[in-house]
């Protein structure tokens, strides 16, 4: 196990798990998929590959934040503003 | 700039939750229901933090009124970048009847106590849709107000505010100190990620009671009933 990167991976997992609480399809659904995605790569040892996977995880975090923002923005716009706006 | 900004944040039922009216029709079901920061309050916090990042203000103070649970909401504001929080303790019957009039009195008292130069609030809460707190606070303090702000620019000791109004956009220039209420297009609030929430645990939240501020939170309103609309969107 690449020791210095282990901390990063665990931190990434925790951050994603925290974000998953607001997932539209439910926290349980998200947690299952998250665990599955991480477990699929549990035997990767090459630090380069691990770094790439962590970067992909960071990208997913950004996508989730964008998803949550858009959902909220669209809901507010629909509720409070006239259609022409 | 030595300016201090007070940001009001309200804990409301999460926008995505399907609201259910209580069988006795005295209100809506809140027990066990997901709560979060009012979306317009998030926009208010983001604007205050942006001003601090541009070094136009020195300190951002997040304020919320309510029972113990509102501390979560204050923590979210701290995670977004506020420096410290103030929890105005209101619980039980007082909290059920707490409305814009009482909250604006509290904010006015806090603004004087903390010597705030700017108060930023969300334009309205998604639970009561009052759209009154900002306006009332400005009136109580006799401060100018820039409501429905979609753009705020600090120019020396004046504030240029672009307001979203029915006909389009109105640009006004107001003196500081002032009250601003945030509209949807003011900015894109940052997400309070886990690392930021952890860092925010070190920031201080002070507790204060309305009585300490000399504010009477009794309400002159009585809710007679709460019902679901028979047909949504039809009057």
TrEMBL record, chain A:
Residue ranges of domain Complex 1 LYR protein in the record: 8-61
Family annotation (InterPro entries): Complex1_LYR_dom, Complex1_LYR_ETFRF1_LYRM5, ETFRF1
Matching Pfam families: Complex1_LYR (PF05347)
GO cellular component: mitochondrion
Top-level taxon of origin: Eukaryota
Gene Ontology terms: biological process: negative regulation of oxidative phosphorylation; respiratory electron transport chain
PANTHER family per UniProt: ELECTRON TRANSFER FLAVOPROTEIN REGULATORY FACTOR 1, GROWTH HORMONE-INDUCIBLE SOLUBLE PROTEIN-RELATED
Family that this chain belongs to: Belongs to the complex I LYR family.
UniProt-recorded name of the protein: LYR motif-containing protein 5A
UniProt organism field: Cyprinus carpio (Common carp)
Gene from which the chain derives: LOC109060302
Automatic annotation (TrEMBL), chain B:
SMART domains, per database record: ETF (SM00893)
UniProtKB keywords: Electron transport, Mitochondrion, Transport
Chief place of localization: mitochondrion
UniProt KW Membrane keyword: no
A GO term from the CC aspect: mitochondrial matrix
CDD domains: ETF_beta (cd01714)
Function: The electron transfer flavoprotein serves as a specific electron acceptor for several dehydrogenases, including five acyl-CoA dehydrogenases, glutaryl-CoA and sarcosine dehydrogenase. It transfers the electrons to the main mitochondrial respiratory chain via ETF-ubiquinone oxidoreductase (ETF dehydrogenase). Heterodimeric electron transfer flavoprotein that accepts electrons from several mitochondrial dehydrogenases, including acyl-CoA dehydrogenases, glutaryl-CoA and sarcosine dehydrogenase. It transfers the electrons to the main mitochondrial respiratory chain via ETF-ubiquinone oxidoreductase. Required for normal mitochondrial fatty acid oxidation and normal amino acid metabolism. ETFB binds an AMP molecule that probably has a purely structural role.
Subunit structure: Heterodimer composed of ETFA and ETFB. Identified in a complex that contains ETFA, ETFB and ETFRF1. Interacts with ACADM.
Family note: Belongs to the ETF beta-subunit/FixA family.
This protein's name: Electron transfer flavoprotein subunit beta
Native source organism of the sequence: Cyprinus carpio
